[in-house]
Design a protein that fits this description.
Largest sheet: none
Shape: elongated
CATH topology of one domain: Cd81 Antigen, Extracellular Domain, Chain: A
Order of helices and strands: HHHHHH
Number of strands: 0
Helix content: 55-70%
Strand content: under 5%
Distance between the termini: 41 Å
Number of helices: 6
Length: 168
């Protein structure tokens, strides 16, 4: 389990590098670091449990049980906090994404990240393609279309025009 968590933590940190323009917060990779720390602690706790079992030590098994109970309480607390603050996180991410979409010009690094995100997640805009109508890029192009990264991958000759929403 510790090896699995270590892999997940490393994968999240690696993936964060692709989306760091959306997550300007310097604490955004913190959950991944916490996952890696938890993996190390899990390994140590597992080692204590194995050694206590092999030696048949009542003190060691008692210590192991108390550690497992503390971890369980921490997991329940984390779940409750995640549930309580989910709307705040959602609002913060959406406002950050709106500001990044506002900077879209098709050429800068933020634009590349927006295109990559839309292609990988098969989406268009923050909520839907109509989000693009409020951006500076949409108003400056004047062609009533969204970026080509909004097009469905299976659609050929997609122009990104809003009068053809089935292609987006």
């Amino acid at each position: 389990a510790a090896a699995g968590l270590s892999y997940v933590g490393a994968y999240v940190i690696n993936t964060y590098k692709s989306y760091d323009n959306f997550l300007h917060d310097k604490y955004a990779p913190l959950p991944a670091a916490i996952i890696i720390c938890v993996a190390v602690v899990m390994f140590v706790i597992g080692l204590i449990g194995c050694c206590a079992t092999f030696r048949e030590s009542r003190i060691g098994l008692g210590l192991f049980l108390s550690i497992i109970l503390v971890i369980f309480i921490a997991e329940v607390s984390a779940f409750v906090l995640g549930f309580v603050y989910r709307e705040k996180v959602k609002t913060d991410v959406q406002s950050t994404m709106h500001s990044v979409f506002e900077k879209y010009d098709g050429k800068n690094p933020e634009s590349t990240v927006v295109d990559y995100l839309q292609e990988q997640l098969h989406c268009c805009g923050v909520k839907n393609y109509s989000d693009w109508t409020a951006t500076q890029w949409f108003n400056s192009t004047g062609n009533n279309s969204v970026p080509l990264s909004c097009c469905r991958q299976e659609t050929k000759n997609c122009t990104g025009r809003l009068d053809q929403p089935q292609e987006l």
